[in-house]
Design a protein that fits this description.
This protein is mainly alpha-helical and about 80 residues long. About 55% of the residues lie in helices and about 5% in strands. The chain has four helices and two strands; from the N terminus they run H-H-E-E-H-H. It has a two-stranded antiparallel ribbon. Strand 1 and strand 2 form a beta hairpin. The longest helix is centred in the middle third of the chain and has 13 residues. The N terminus is likely disordered.
Length: about 80
């Protein structure tokens, strides 16, 4: 995957964004199938990536010492599948 494509995924653009919008539209109303005994509501919880990175840093990295900054820089990029 090229760097330009990765940037588009991070920014939430491209085909993934439109697929996500379609999924949200599909589940905007409750799923109600009384004959099958199914009723459920789907909720989407959205956050900014900075919030997710905060929790990654907080719970993964705050309790151990580091001799260099490399592990702190590389790990979030691995989680985001950028390397």
């Amino acid at each position: 995957m090229g760097k330009l494509r990765q940037a588009a995924l991070i920014l939430g653009e491209g085909p993934e964004r439109s697929q996500y919008q379609k999924l949200k539209a599909k589940y905007a109303k409750p799923i109600d199938k009384p004959k099958k005994g199914i009723y459920c509501e789907v909720e989407f919880f959205e956050t900014h990536r900075c919030t997710e990175l905060f929790f990654l840093y907080y719970f993964r990295y705050t309790s151990r010492p580091y001799e260099t900054q490399e592990p702190i820089i590389v790990a979030p990029l691995r989680v985001l599948s950028l390397i």
